[in-house]
Structures are given as C-alpha cells and as structure tokens.
Specification:
One of its GO terms (molecular function) is oxidoreductase activity. The chain has about 260 residues and is α/β, with parallel strands linked by helices. Helices cover about 55% and strands about 15% of the residues.
Amino acid sequence: MRVDGRVVVITGAAGGIGAALARRFAAEGAAGIVLSDLDLDAVTALAGELKVDAQGVRTDVTVSDEVRALVDAALRRYGRVDLFCSNAGITTGIGLEDGDALWQRSWAVNVQAHVYAARAVLPAMLERGEGYLLQTCSAAGLLTAVGDAPYTVTKHAAVALAEWLSITYGDRGIRVSALCPQGVDTPMLRDGLDAGHVGARVTAASGAVLSPDDVADAVIAGLADERFLILPHPEVGTYLAHKTQNPDRWLAGMRRLAGGIAG
C-alpha cells in the first residue's frame, strides 16, 4: 500500500510514533487523517499543522463504543478508512508483584484496543474488499521486555492477534502488519528511564534508539512491501531467529543481559 490518496486513522497520535506517522503520512499525500488520543488538545493542534485534511478526536481506546465512534467519525467525513493504525500502548515496569490494576490496564490498552479497532473498522473494509490494519506491537511482542511482565505478555498477545487477523481475513483483501520496534526515543521510553525501570534500561542498552521519524520511514517501506513484520531495528529479526533456533541459549543470554544491567 502507498499512503498517497488514502484515508488513515491513527490512535495514540498525540506524540511519539503516532505523531511521527501522522506527519509522514501527510507528507506522502494522504487524502485525510483522523488523529485519536486521550489528549484532544494535542491531536487537534497536530491536525492543524498537517498540510492535508485532518481532524483530532478524543478517544479512550479501552472503550469499545468510543473506538466505534472514532471509526464512524472517519466514515462520515471521508466515506472510508483505508488504513487503521492501532498505535496506543503503555508500559508498567512491574513483574509479578501486586499490580492488578496495571495488568488490567495493560490488557485493555495493548490488546483489547486492537480488538475493538478491528471489530469497528473491518465491516466497511470487508464490504469494499480492501483495507489495511497496522498494529504497533513492539519487539517485546516477539522477544521479551525484561523487568516488565505485563508489557511482555500483552505485546505477545498483540502479535498473536495480528497473525490471526491476517490468517482470517488476508484472502478477503485485508492486509495486516505488526510494527515491532525496539528502542525508540519517545516519552514512554524516557519516562521508564527516569523511573529506573530495568526494562527501559535494557532496551536503551540493547541497540540503537531510533527517532519516531525513523520508525515512520520503516512503516512507509513496510506498507509499500505489505510485510507482516515491520522491523525498524533489523537486528530484531536476527534476535528472533536465534530465539526460535535455540530457545535455551537465548534465554540464558537474556538472563546475563538483564543481570548485567540490573547489577
């Protein structure tokens, strides 16, 4: 898929990867962009900066009716949604300690939000016989997030959902990509570093920390090739191969890495 002339919806668009995607899609000539976030002021301001038709919509992606309303707003304005970028996500920095509220919030944002988006946008896409779902899943969904159990588990679930959607709807004109970056210079990573989260420190130490614009470049290339896995950090593919070829060795290496960072 090429973005020029397309209608795009982006969640988690107030900053970081979401905002970078919006700017890049606008530069590519998108026909219209709907920017969604809890921070309405931020996405409204961003919409005003873009040199294409755009609007900001406040959406809590953990509420099914609000996600459906977001899709309905895009359909009313543009008549179609060509690409839905389910991008909102959160980290926690916790393990197995008593943090049920954070576990539930992680499931809601990192998994159920993707379910609600697909449920809302797929009927119109299937009726037209085409559409694209881009789901931000993180390298943690393929590998792990040391020190953050909820993030690891929910991002694995997000990749699994993307796989299921591709298998189920791929022959009906629906294309699916899982965006799996590693370290990206976003408020999420910076907040984790400021809080001293081991996972954020491992991520920052494990390879290059890309800018959100770098990720947007990778997305444009991945969409053009219609690749399922979009890996802004190519080394993630190498790590994944090592993991699948010899899980025990990979786990031992991750323990050493985590222990060195924590120490």
